């Protein structure tokens, strides 16, 4: 027995062992199967024999006997369903390991006994699936003679296959899936025969087509009324889906007969007419699997190549009308799948067939129906993208016949593109232009010269802007794609710029410059040097011929700027760098860097791009672009880098000089360019350049010292700080031999009183530590660096403190175990920096403190700390000792030092609370707690922050005993509003209540401050009641206002309680004053759109005033009206016979008349200096104000004793005659 047979039977034994383990299963069906197996194995005679084949026969006999016992032989029905299920399940496993000769001899007997398991109505899913497995094993064992039924038997394999195929379209999904898997296995394992096609393939395909025909006819026979019934529609769609799944199963095996491909495609295209997306998707999946299987066979065996072409031809013959929007789109999608799949396995033959495909699809591109023409254009774009493989476009080491065949295909496609640009396709001009652009992008350099004619036609469209303005975007896309594909040198050969002396025969193409800028990639640098630089020189010579503010001069300057903007793109991986980037051209660029500051950005970016593009390409960028690798191998990029290396020293010198002449705010790009060239410069040249820079730096410092000058704001930067920038840039590329000079620079420049120089000096250490060799060098010179940093602690400028802390952090991380004294000497400076006004300085100070703590903890048990330089007393290094060192700051002379120390403790406590012993924690807490009683607000504020960290971070058991003493000290500041003391204290008390419970806090709360506790309790209860009704349905809003950089900051500064306090204070003050907002309703029936950008204009902080109807009527002038808020607005134009009637101010003659009318209608002074309004008609007496407006009420004089001609007689009667 060979190894394969042993592995085969070992697999059977593994499956049976898994079943035996199910004896203790809680599921009855699993347990019953295990019991049957173990019972059979106990009764099998000779089970312990090594003859596995004999054991398999014994298994089959036993399981078949059990199956007979569960059946009623006369009625062909099942008596014991559970026994039949278990026996069939075990037979399914055994039959797949049984010799085929045995199964072939017992086919009729076994099939007769297993058939009732499938046909009986009482059969369950497990039984049927097991019976399908038995049937699969039987059919796999049959030979070609049995399939052809040469013995004229009544029970044949095709009869069993018929039942299996019917189960493939069963409504039950698990049964259907198992049957389809069995059919797949049968087709993938054909019996030995002269052909590779399975003997039963025609039988299976015929059954499938009959079912597909039947269900499609049934669908077509349904009336529209029945199709509208959802249940009917779902039923018929389900039938079609199941049949297409069967088709998909068969065609995926590659066994679909060639003679039946045409009717299958016809029926599948009929299915694609459906509006159900699942049916259409299933049909497309069938097509795709059909194409994949045939293409795979054509590649491996070559037997299906003619079949594949026949399928494509069949699909092309079934093309629908170009006005049928529904079917045409589906048919086009099938074409794309077919051609794309064909190209995967036969790329060259597919390319040869593309001209024919394009001619067929062009029929649909001519369609007047926009949907059809658009689908056709997308089809052609997809074919160009997917069906043309980059491998067949290569020319090196390729057979000449293949190259000529590809060229011929491209030429035929070019002729088709020219035809697309005729008047017949005018309605689809944009789509046609997109297709041509895609062709350029795909064919790349192979498009030259075959696609030049379509390019020239498109160029005429761009020149004739008046007639083709609508296509300008697509036209520029075509020209840009041609530039990327063939290169600007080829395009400019056929489409010259003609910027100098353009004419009608040679039109100018200044519009081509922006297109060149956007699409130039991997071009020839010589095009810019030889063709564009002379144009720039010509235009620059004409600058003096125009006035300074003339339009012509501005136009010419714009053209020159556009030409220079092309240089960075020509410098991106140029093909001819070594030929075109000559010393003369480099010298010209360098002189322009000096003479024209406006061009410095462009030229520096171009020179940087020369290096970066070649460097990235040589390191593996664009490795998947095989066409680019053929045209521009990686070896060329490496040679380019070697060539640039020879020029880097001179270029660096130029960059250094230009950098010193450029203002600090606009010279960062020069440093980037310098760094790019440092990457390719040799170590010897870098060292030489660095020495030159050091010499200049020394001279500059000596000159500064002699002149005693300082840098002024806005002036040209000092040479020393500028040279230090260059030194810092060179740090990452210096050889180790230059590190000594670097440390000398650090030691010298750190003493400078200039903050710019100090800042850069400290950056040297930080930058150097980023390198492995630099870290080693820093560790070697650690002693000198420590002394330098400590010695200059009193001369540190405020602006350089952040850089100094970064250097200290670097040194701390590199400290050896016997140099931990450095931490003791600088920790006070770091502590003070935690209260610095600069946020960056504070962040670095906290990070440095944490680094010191970790360093002390890391060196625990190894490092030692000298407590005094004179004595030899030492202390072991650990985190506890570090906390003791920090505690010295608590007895500082200034309040600022004490406050900084407490703040530092807050950070360290939060970070190292899990590493510290509990006694140390309690000692620190007790000490800091005393400072809550300090009269200094600065110290108390830091102590409150420390208390908050302890309340939130320390274990509950540790803090519970401290709460009674903490509360009175905290509440001492509860009435202090300065610095938010009250809010901070209230928030801490809320956190204490959450953690220890209200009763515990209430028990130890001072009586004098119980009002605060009551307020907190009532506030929390009020919030709970408020949130109770809406909590389940509300959506929590994300807190976007506070974004903490660390958990420590969140613990210190996060204050949910403060927010609640503000809300509660708002609730308490709502009775006095509340800020409300009102939405002003828009007039008309349209509701207010809250998403409208003008909605803010309809939101007011004051309540809109509504006018009474009668008050609106008092305004009789039709030219004015009032809106919903009571504001006076001018009405729109009214329709009338004359244009003059449209003017709402026509009745007002002038501003003088308006003033006189206002004076006449205004109040006048009467007797006793009282205001008096003139009387008149109601119209004249109208004052135009509403009663709702808050105007100062004028007390109307009593009519009593009023003398006038209009007084009322019923109120006054004179008893005397005047």
Q: What do these coordinates show?
A:
- This protein has 1218 residues and is mainly α.
- 62% of the residues lie in helices and 2% in strands.
- The protein has a two-stranded antiparallel ribbon.
- A hairpin with a 4-residue loop joins strand 1 (71-72) and strand 2.
- Helix 14 (261-271) packs antiparallel against helix 15 (277-300) and helix 23 crosses helix 24.
- The model is unreliable at 711-717, 1029-1045, 1055-1075, 1107-1117, 1133-1151 and 1177-1218 (pLDDT under 50).
Given as residue ranges, the uncertain stretches (5+ residues, pLDDT < 50) are 711-717, 1029-1045, 1055-1075, 1107-1117, 1133-1151, 1177-1218
The secondary structure category is mainly alpha
In which order are the strands of the major sheet placed? 1-2
Main sheet summary: 2 strands, antiparallel
Number of strands: 10
In angstroms, what is the radius of gyration? Answer: 47 Å
Which shape, going by the Cα principal axes?
Answer: extended
Beginning-to-end CA distance, first to last residue: 153 Å
List the helices and strands and how they pair.
Blueprint: H1 3-20, H2 28-43, H3 52-69, E1 71-72, E2 77-78, H4 81-95, H5 100-105, H6 107-119, H7 125-140, H8 144-148, H9 157-168, H10 173-188, H11 201-221, H12 224-227, H13 230-251, H14 261-271, H15 277-300, H16 305-317, H17 325-345, H18 347-365, H19 370-386, H20 400-420, H21 429-443, H22 452-463, H23 472-486, H24 488-494, H25 512-519, H26 525-541, H27 551-564, H28 567-570, H29 577-580, H30 583-595, H31 600-618, H32 626-631, H33 634-660, H34 668-680, H35 683-707, H36 719-730, H37 739-749, H38 755-768, H39 772-780, H40 782-791, H41 801-814, H42 821-833, H43 839-858, E3 864-866, E4 874-876, H44 879-886, H45 895-912, H46 918-930, H47 937-953, H48 956-960, H49 963-971, H50 981-996, H51 998-1003, H52 1010-1028, H53 1047-1053, H54 1056-1068, E5 1078-1079, E6 1099-1100, H55 1109-1113, E7 1120-1122, E8 1128-1130, H56 1151-1161, E9 1164-1165, E10 1171-1172
Antiparallel strand pairs: 1-2, 3-4, 5-6, 7-8, 9-10
Helix pairs in contact: 2-4, 3-4, 4-7, 6-7, 7-9, 7-10, 9-10, 9-11, 11-13, 11-14, 13-15, 14-15, 14-16, 15-16, 15-17, 16-17, 17-18, 17-19, 18-19, 18-20, 19-21, 21-23, 22-23, 23-24, 23-25, 26-27, 31-33, 31-34, 33-34, 34-36, 35-36, 36-38, 37-38, 38-41, 40-41, 41-42, 41-43, 42-43, 42-45, 43-44, ...
